[in-house]
Design goal:
Number of strands: 7
Largest sheet: 5 strands, antiparallel
Oligomer: single chain
Order of helices and strands: HEEEEEEHEH
Helix content: 25-40%
Strand content: 25-35%
Shape: globular
Distance between the termini: 37 Å
Structural class: alpha+beta
Number of helices: 3
C-alpha cells in the first residue's frame, strides 16, 4: 500500500481539526478560493479549492486542484494527489483543506480578483 493511501486511511479515521486560516465557506468566491503554498520547494505555487454546487446552487463539496499530480510536504509526512474531493464544510468541520493548510503553510484568498488570476494563468 502506498504512503498516500496509508495517509488517507489514517485521515478518514481521524478527522483533522478546523484550521483558522481556512476561510469559512460563506466568505468564498462563488467559484472557490485560491491558496499560496508557503513552505518547501513548492513555495509560491498556487492551489485552487473549487466549490462544487448542485443544480439548486447548494454546496456539495470542494475539489482541490494542486500544482502537480502529487505533492508532499518537506518532511514527507503529508502527501496529496491532485483532484481530491471533500464534502466537509470549510470552517465548520475539519477536512482535507485544513490538513493541506497546515502541512504546506497555505495562505488562502477569497478575492474574486485572485480567483480570476488563477484561471487566467491556466489559460497561458
Amino acid at each position: 500500500m502506498s504512503a498516500f493511501w496509508r495517509g488517507l486511511r489514517q485521515f478518514v479515521s481521524q478527522r483533522p481539526e478546523v484550521d483558522e486560516r481556512v476561510p469559512e465557506l460563506s466568505r468564498w468566491d462563488s467559484r472557490g478560493i485560491v491558496g499560496t503554498i508557503g513552505i518547501g520547494d513548492n513555495a509560491g505555487l498556487k492551489i485552487l479549492a473549487l466549490k462544487e454546487v448542485n443544480g439548486a446552487g447548494k454546496y456539495v463539496s470542494y475539489l482541490l486542484e494542486l500544482p502537480f499530480p502529487f505533492i508532499e510536504n518537506p518532511d514527507s509526512s503529508v502527501q496529496m494527489e491532485n483532484g481530491i474531493f471533500d464534502d466537509n464544510v470549510p470552517g465548520e468541520s475539519g477536512g482535507l483543506i485544513d490538513e493541506l493548510t497546515r502541512a504546506f503553510d497555505v495562505t488562502w484568498s477569497c478575492s474574486s480578483a485572485d480567483v480570476d488570476a488563477y484561471f487566467r494563468d491556466l489559460d497561458r
